[in-house]
Amino acid sequence: MTRNHRHLLLLLGLGAAALIWATFPPSEIALSDACTPLPGPAQWSSVLYSGPFWRRQLAAVEAEQLDLLSYPARRARLEAEAETARRLSPIESKMERLSQGQGEDPAVKERQEAERHAARLKRAIWLTECAGRIHQRLNE
User: Is residue 82 part of a domain?
Assistant: First the structure.
């Protein structure tokens, strides 16, 4: 085998390795709004590694669903911890009371929280829809 042939085989091997790496099923959500693979590497991955691609997407979707569903409990726990910390420090408590008078309008804060809640709810609905479609695909 000549030196040029070895270089060609090396380049072909590197190209194949790069293709496999680029199309390996992603562990993050790589789905469009219609729950189809995003164009590019995710789309190729779904063709080349159909089963593993969809199982990884299902795992990513379910992990995000769990995170969204646990958000209210996490938030309540963090608020309770912050309240406990404020009670332990009278100076911080007084500073907080003083800053509340200079802070944002409560109506603005409430509207922003409602918008964040609506976005979380919309995302949770989309995740549930995608999980159902993925289950169908895996059971075909």
Answer: yes
